[in-house]
Amino acid sequence: FLHGLGDTGHGWSEALAGIKSPHVKYICPHAPVMPVSLNMNMAMPSWFDIIGLSPDSQEDEAGIKQAAENVKALIDQEVKNGIPSNRIILGGFSQGGALSLYTALTTQQKLAGVVALSCWLPLRASFPQGPISGVNKEIPVLQCHGDCDPLVPLMFGSLTVEKLKSMINPANVNFRTYSGMMHSSCIEEMMDVKQFIDKHLPPVD
C-alpha cells in the first residue's frame, strides 16, 4: 500500500492495522525524498514529481515509469519469498493510488486486485484506446473517493473510473464515494477496503 505525497508508510500501516486479517501481510513502503515542483521544489517523500494538479498539467513521465519499476521490484521480492503475484493486492492513496493503478495496468505480473483511494490514472494518454491485452485485463479494482475532496477533485476519480472501465472488464471496477469526505479516509471506506481484501485474498488451506 503506497502512501500519498509528503507522507510515510507509517500512517497507513496504522490505518490498515484496524482492518487486518491474520493471514494477510501488509507492506507500507516509504517513498524516496525528492524535490516536488508543485511544492516549490521542497524536498519531501514522493513516488514521482508532481508538476500541477489540473487535468492538463505536464506529468513526470520518466519518474512515473521508474516508480512503477520500483513497485514491480517489490512485488518480485514477495514472489521470491513464496507469495504468488496473483495473491498480491496493490493499493495506495492519492499519489500512491495513482502509482498502484499505473503499475497494475502496465505490469506483466498477474495481481489479485487494486485498491485506489482518492486518486487518478497517471499518463492516461499513453494507454491505447480500448481494452488492455495484458495479464490484468480482468483485475478487480476498488476505487474510492470523497465527494468533497479539494485536492484531487471527485471529477478526477469519475474520469479515471470511466477510463478503467474501457481498459479492463467493467464488471470488475467498483467505484465508491463517501459523502462529506475530503482528501482523507473514513471508517466506512476502510470497511469497504477490508471487504475487498477479504474477498480477493481468502485464506488458503
From TrEMBL:
GO terms for biological process: fatty acid metabolic process. Its main location: membrane. Pfam families: Abhydrolase_2. It catalyses: a 1-(9Z-octadecenoyl)-2-acyl-sn-glycero-3-phosphocholine + H2O = a 2-acyl-sn-glycero-3-phosphocholine + (9Z)-octadecenoate + H(+); 1-hexadecanoyl-sn-glycero-3-phosphocholine + H2O = sn-glycerol 3-phosphocholine + hexadecanoate + H(+); S-hexadecanoyl-L-cysteinyl-[protein] + H2O = L-cysteinyl-[protein] + hexadecanoate + H(+). Transmembrane segments: none annotated. Acts as an acyl-protein thioesterase. Hydrolyzes fatty acids from S-acylated cysteine residues in proteins such as trimeric G alpha proteins or HRAS. Acts as a palmitoyl thioesterase that catalyzes depalmitoylation of proteins, such as ADRB2, KCNMA1 and SQSTM1. Acts as a negative regulator of autophagy by mediating palmitoylation of SQSTM1, decreasing affinity between SQSTM1 and ATG8 proteins and recruitment of ubiquitinated cargo proteins to autophagosomes. Acts as a lysophospholipase and hydrolyzes lysophosphatidylcholine (lyso-PC). Homodimer. This is Acyl-protein thioesterase 1. It comes from Columba livia.
